[in-house]
Specification:
Strand content: under 5%
Distance between the termini: 54 Å
Structural class: mainly alpha
CATH topology: ABC transporter involved in vitamin B12 uptake, BtuC
Order of helices and strands: HHHHEEHHHHHHH
Strand order of the largest sheet: 1-2
CATH class: Mainly Alpha
Radius of gyration: 19 Å
Number of domains: 1
């Protein structure tokens, strides 16, 4: 029974981490209608920058905030330099560009920081909490992850459902020409959407790095799991990203705990295939009307 509880708690922690990165994918898709496959590589780069700042003696929380700010700037720059020139081109072009950006960022990180793995400190203790005299697989850092992701989801919901800015961002994503005719600064809003997604992705990288040795490629598998989570919940739903992250995290944790860690990617693949066959639009997305 204790094994099941610990595996479940580990799955919840992993699920919240996947949800954080899935929220970045959802945010950028809602704001710009683009799936950014470079989200993980961008988060990796900001995590390396935070690690460098820590090595130079900067306070942990200042390095944390600096990484978030750099993630925002990096996301905005990617949109302005690489994505904006592709406006009006086939929808596949931005996807190909983001895949190419993954290769570039990982190559740059490997050249500058090396390909060897390193550790990253956690904001709080990673020792399991003691409940009723029993130590469980849930630490103070896991509590921090849980609270951070819940606040992130709430902020995402408020942005798109309760603010004029969020409404304009969604309008710019769905109908750019109409939005321009109505006086909306579409270019700035798309840049803002990429910037916010970069910030959220940077947060995800800072949450993931302390749980495993990180290097230039440490976000690749997590991005796959996060994409699975986003698809399960629906690419336009922040709540769906959270639920999808938890489902993915629990599935991977159970597969790894009972069948072996080597089968975890296969478990995620099966979960993704089942979701696409049963409800391809995601749990929390409504099927769109088909025009014939």
């Amino acid at each position: 029974m204790s094994l099941f509880i610990n595996i479940t708690l580990d799955g919840v922690t992993q699920g919240m981490i996947f949800a954080a990165l899935a929220l970045a994918l959802v945010l950028i898709f809602r704001a710009t209608r683009v799936i950014n496959f470079a989200q993980g590589a961008m988060a990796m780069l900001t995590t390396f920058i935070a690690s460098t700042l820590l090595d130079r003696g900067l306070n942990y929380w200042w390095a944390f905030v600096a990484a978030l700010a750099i993630g925002f700037v990096l996301g905005a720059l990617v949109q302005m330099v690489l994505i904006r020139p592709l406006e009006g081109k086939p929808d596949l072009n931005p996807v190909i560009v983001t895949i190419g950006l993954v290769i570039v960022l990982e190559g740059v990180a490997g050249a500058v920081y090396g390909n060897s793995s390193r550790g990253f400190p956690a904001a709080f203790s990673q020792s399991g909490l003691v409940v009723g005299g029993t130590r469980i697989a849930f630490s103070h850092f896991d509590v921090f992850i849980l609270v951070a992701v819940l606040l992130l989801m709430a902020a995402n919901l408020v942005l798109f459902r309760a603010t004029t800015l969020g409404l304009r961002m969604r309008a710019s994503a769905f109908a750019r020409e109409v939005s321009r005719l109505l006086g909306v600064r579409v270019g700035r809003l798309l840049t803002l959407g990429w910037g916010l997604a970069g910030l959220v992705g940077a947060l995800a990288g800072l949450l993931i790095a302390p749980t495993s040795a990180f290097g230039p490629y440490f976000m690749d598998l997590d991005l796959i799991y996060a994409f699975t989570a986003a698809v399960i919940g629906g690419l336009e739903s922040p709540v769906g990203a959270l639920v999808g992250g938890l489902v993915t995290g629990l599935c991977i944790s159970y597969v790894g705990g009972y069948l072996g860690s080597g089968l975890e990617p296969l478990g995620a693949l099966v979960l993704l295939m089942v979701t696409l066959m049963a409800r391809p639009q995601g749990i929390f997305s409504r099927p769109s009307a088909r025009v014939v």
